[in-house]
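Changelog note: in this version the structure field was regenerated for every chain. One regenerated record is shown below for reference.
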Amino acid sequence: MIFRRCPENPIVRPGGLPWRRATTYNPAAIVEGGRFYLLERASPSLRPHQCWIGLLESSDGVHFTHVVDDPVFTPAMMGWPLGSVQDPRVVKIDGTFYMTLAVRPFSVHFGQPPGFRLEDVYDDYHGEADNYTRSAVAASADLVHWEPLGFCTPAGLDDRDVILFPEKIDGKFAILRRPQTGPYADAPPSIYLSTSDDLKTWSEPLPIARPREGLAWEAGKIGGSCPPIRTEAGWLTPYHGVDANTVYRVGVMLLDLADPTKVLARTPVPVLEPHAEYEKIGLFIPNVVFPCGGVVHEGVYYLYYGCCDTYIAMASAPLDDLLEYVLLAGGGDVAAE
């Protein structure tokens, strides 16, 4: 409706380097020095589907090459060498790049046969809770060399889609998050916000938005997608909605600049949904568009998204048009009750 798909989609495909031969998807994105950078989630195989983070660059936002041949972030860097690092998002605050990412202690297996159990592969795995996703923060001066700063969600919870705002709010770091288990888990899962003085100790999560009654495309769950973009009207914030058939679509919210727990506007219909063949058919879950990176360059908003856990694609829209569309949609709702 607003976004135009790049004619060269998928713009990044698996292959080449040995650690990314099977899949590449769900990339973080940032523009630095006039160049576009993607942090891809990539894997060499489906069983096990262990993922690393690689770094690519481009002068035009479409044609990407790797900055270095090795992954720039691995599960071993978080202390879980058998695990997986997934779905990065990146921002730059006060001259430092910060990446949030989901981390699993053990790698999952795509296309596992009936009766397959992770217990039979990993001696230390004793059930689903042992492989709950925690979310972490890492810092870098150059996007290549990363220092893990620790976890930003507690142990024993499945909490992902953790995304840093690109600047401090009222002097504090702020993250979006989506707890799926524990005391803050909603049914369906919803978007929350926490703050921190030091990126290590985080406040209790406050609800921002829940799936809206009567909108089937959000009925399964919602979660943050890309780091919010500051505009004069508020924080422009893409998010994903999942329906009862596990179809992933993209909506956009506008959050208050001073108090981002307040939703000022929210699109009632998706701004992007699976339509092209590469968005409907892939190696794993079909019918998935899953953005993790959104950047503004020369007045255009570039949305980078994973397709069916297989490829990376891009769609773009004039920022002013997108913002106008969200404002016209209205529908703000603070989900604090």
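Spot check on this record: The longest strand covers residues 23-32. The chain is about 5% helix and 40% strand.
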